[in-house]
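Minutes, project check-in

Agenda point 3 was the complex the collaborators sent over. CS summarized: three entities, 845 residues total, and the question is how they sit relative to each other. Sequences were read into the notes so everyone works from the same version.
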Amino acid sequence: MNIDRRKFVTRGAAGMAGMLIGGSLTGKSAAGIPAAAATPASGPQPYDLMKEVMQYRKIDTHAHIYWTDDSPETQLDYGRRLGIDRQVISRYLDVMPGTPDQFRKFNDLTIKAIKKYPDHLIGGFVLNPVYKQESLDEIKRCTDAGMVGPGELYYQVKINDPRYYPVIEKLIDLKMIIHSHGECQLGVGGYRMKYNGHKQPNTSIPEDFVAIARRYPEGIFQYAHIGMGGDWEYECKLFRDCPNIYVDTSGSNNAENMIDFAVEHLGEDRLFFASDNSYYQGVGKILAANLTERQKQKIFFDNYNNLLKKGGRGVD
Amino acid sequence: MLIDSNAYIGHWPFLKLEYNTPEALLGRMQEFGTDVSVISNLNGIFYKNTQHANEELRDAIRSKRAYRDRFIPFAVINPIYGGWRDDFETCATTMGMKGVRLYPQYHGYDIAALPCIELVKMCRDKGLPVAFCLRMVDSRTSSWMDLDKEWTLKNIVPIVKAVPDAKYMIVNVAGSMALSGEEMSLFRKADLLMDSSGRSMTNWSDLLKQFGTGKFCFGTHSPILDYFSGLLRIESLRKNEADEHTKELLRSGNIKGLLGS
Amino acid sequence: MLIDINAYTGHWPFMQLQYGTCATLLARMNKFGVHLSVISNLNGIFYKNTQSANRELYDELRSLGQHSSRFLPFAVINPTYAGWQHDLEECVKKFGMKGVRVYPKYHDYEINDPSLVELVKKARDMDLPVAFNYKMVDSRQRSWMDIDYVAYTPKPEWSLKNIFPIIKAVPDAKYMILNVTNSMQLEEADAALFRKANVLMDTSGRTINDLGNLLKTQGTGRFAFGTHAPILDYLTGMLRIEALRESEASTVTKELLRSGNAKKFLGL
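CS then shared the predicted structure for the full assembly.
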């Protein structure tokens, strides 16, 4: 049956102007595909990946050493392979309860490594603010030993817990970058807790970083590993209006567009290149992003080094 | 004049859709005589970051002059996702969105949860309607990965109770419409519209009497449901069920009022 | 020459993709020097009727004209859904598809489901590779609507042990194992059988970070370049090959990884 459906209803067309979007659509364009991408070129262009890899100086701002005999040599070898000049290493405190004896022992491992490889390894210390005085003493001991700031602080206490305040105030005095583990996974640390992530309950989540960054606007906070596997869109969106939260790009997850999205939301100055020992993904995700030469230089090296320089700890 | 209060573009993960682009939807509108459609982006139901879906919708409407005159965009906001307040502000101002669609079941929060109430109040303060859908698809035919529970009208009551002076749209009313006397009174007083796409929109004589003639409007739930049934429910009303004035309210008058035109 | 054995077009429901079409993938291939991509449609993971997705891929490739020769399409088949035998025939004979991708977790059946065994045997008889992957996205960033195989929980992500039963059931089929992100450990007897099987693994997964050693234990003929694009970044899978030292992989071995193994496996 071929009916004229248009005649089925009464028609008129008045009074719609205010409801239509009309000329009010003046927002910025979505993060998108370069215009050229839609028009395929004639064929594959020569691309020398290793030349691209080696042309950028790099500080890996989040890496770890291990108790095994091959550490830190294995980590250093990845660095040589991928043109990473320096790595900020720590032995993260993956034990509970994380006593002073434990964190001192962990830091001793790092001190030993940086003393052996001072040109390539930068030390980060760990602590547990449950033990206030011991933690403050450890900051001094590690700083005297040449460490530049905290390594990846871990899950014993949430980063915005009042027990952290004296530690954070000390780190601010010392102009150090406050680097902490964070997660944004269903069920972890309060993020949509109806799910069970089987993680330590005091794991910091993005909201905890926002809280502490607002309490200490003069602090410089490094949110660890947006590539760890957490919800990087959520993280970047939440941190957009917190200029003193920086993110490191490390983690085993190298989702396409993660770096572009982070630059769009945080700006090119608030990303630090890092691997968290996933070295290939660490470098690959930066080079696959749509970044300018200058942006790559900043993320691979300058952003972090400029902050180190503020505390007199720059590497060049 | 005919205004479709409930249409979509975008992708439905579990089924290939045939009319899910602005061009295809416009074709359906022209075929069936619809002047204007309220549209949102289906992708916003599933993207964790719904703002990407809103940006896609904005870009789609901007892509052709004709679309700007025929589509009224609604944003999808998830009030328990990072940055949603910024997203809402951007949608309501620079993007020119004229309402907000919420999906508590898909996004995983209670309809009367505090963030939802906060968002509905923000919409109220800007004069923007808030739309809830009782179901996107029939749960019996959907995927094993889709929701397993549909809503009835009663599920909407808590938010109307919490923010009685907001503007509401309830679309695809497919389950029970039973309300207690108190709830019915709340609904009758509220600035609230239900669209004609849902299968519960059958006994119009009673519905118009129970809720009032100002509580309903044309909607297709296109491209998930067929384009025609929602319209047929209105056009097939007999004179003793709805006079021409009432039909005009259903075709466009009521939705124009809600949208503030 | 570079052949990517693990790329997609289509839509991922839970996240906007930046390069989710054949045209945008082609631009990535051209930019980074990739000649050919094995491609399938992400929509087939979620559509109940996967044939809609296969038809979409066929139509999309046709719309590319001569550039369609840069792609090798694989069908997505759900062997527990009605009509899959007909779909497979149509995919091969009409759509020109060269392999099959299966998603037991998303399509909700077990790895030893008789219908999967039937499909794999059918694919073997048609000389089609069957591709499995460990996971599509990292479970730690999954949507609450996505499947709930989650790392470090009682229902963890897959490892090789989860895929192996089908290889044991049909040892003479051709298998691709993609996005290898967790353990490759097997019991000794199973490992011996796995070594004999005709298997090709791609370099997109994080377990391949140790490719130098894997070449020693698995042999040089079992790996090939893969991106898992557009879900993972385009370069990391390539970097794992290009950053190999001469002591780990000779020029000949690198060429096998870039394209030689894929050519042989796919009969190109």
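Noted in discussion: Chain A touches chain B at residues 5-31, 192, 194, 206, 231, 233-238, 240-241 (CB under 8 Å).
Follow-up: revisit at the next meeting once the mutant set is ready.
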